[in-house]
Amino acid sequence: MVLDTIFRASKSLELTCILYFYKMSIFKKLLNFYINSSIHVALAVYALTYITLLEFDLLYDEAMLYFVFYATITGYNFVKYFGLAKFHHRSLANWLKAIQIFSFFCFVLMGYYALQLPLELLVYLGVFGLITFFYAIPFLPKRIFIDKYHNLRSIGGLKVYVIALVWSGVTVFLPLLSNDYGIDDDVFITEFQRFCFVILLMLPFEIRDLKFDSLKLSTIPQRIGVRNTKIIGVVMAVLIFLLEFFKDETSQTQILVLGVVQLLTVLLLVLARKNQNKYYSSFWVEGIPLVWLLLLVVAS
């Protein structure tokens, strides 16, 4: 009787464990697809663009925000998987095929929302589209590059600044131009803050990639070391926060939220290691803009 009870209990525990690990496996696959298909990074760009609308007291701009979201997925997946799809198109793994199909639908939706934007805005976006295109496509002489790809991200020391330029240009100027907001000193301060913030967000990624990147890439941690990279990051976070006080139009809520966000960013930067968890940078660090947006919405 006792042995029978123990046997049933053990079978029940075994079944529970199997179901648990099965559910965890599905969750992990969904999380990996969420990250690898660039949904997470697209939400981060969406959040930063929405933050600009809130900071300048502008109305929710659905067409512009959705365009930014789908364009980010399309652009990032093009940059990340162009080489893989080009050279292995006949033997693509199932996950890459799924991302390709997903990216195609995002491209279609990007086009749909692009048709709702004014022409001058599309011309402005075209500049960043070309930067993204040349970021992945070989187009310049081989002597400039450190590897066989001959694209912008192969130029030593340029990668982080190109990404910061595109992110800040899209998330600050685009929502303001879309709403015919006059460009003033506050806008330029916000642009510079955003440019620095994106670089700050990328530092944990660059620390993580130290064990993968060629030394010729000349990333910030490669040039000055991990410790000095973190010091530079702390200085940038302080600068971003202090610049808020030079704006003509700001609020206590914006200042408080910005301070909390910079503290969180610095904390994750200080804790960043070369051998970090798989999701440390790609999920937690990249999710900081979502926290920023959430805090602004709640505080407002």
Characteristic terms for this protein:
mainly alpha; 0% strand; globular
Average predicted confidence as pLDDT: 83
Structural class: mainly alpha
* Beta-strand share of residues: under 5%
Outline the biggest β-sheet.
none
Q: How would you characterize this protein structure?
A:
The protein has 300 residues and is mainly α. The protein has a domain of 145 residues. It contains 11 helices and no strands. The radius of gyration is 22 Å and the shape is globular. The model has no long low-confidence stretch (mean pLDDT 83).
Please describe the topology of this protein.
Blueprint: H1 2-36, H2 39-55, H3 62-87, H4 94-114, H5 119-136, H6 159-178, H7 185-208, H8 220-243, H9 252-270, H10 280-285, H11 288-299
Helix pairs in contact: 2-3, 2-6, 2-11, 3-4, 3-5, 5-6, 6-7, 7-8, 7-9, 8-9, 9-11
